[in-house]
Amino acid sequence: PEAALFAFAALTLMIAVVLMFDPMLLWDLVDDLRAGRAPSAAPRREARR
C-alpha cells in the first residue's frame, strides 16, 4: 500500500481520539490541583450555569 493509505488511517485515528476527548475532565483536574486537592479518579458532573 502507498503512503496515502497509512496517512488516511492515521488521520482517521486522530479524529476519533479528538472526538472522544472530554475537556471537562481536564478542567476538573486543573481545578483540583489549584485547590490543593489530589486529583479525583472519578469525573465530577456538575450542572453548568
From TrEMBL:
Ranges that cross the membrane: 6-27
Lineage: superkingdom: Bacteria
The entry's keywords: Membrane, Transmembrane, Transmembrane helix
Identification of the protein by name: Paraquat-inducible protein A
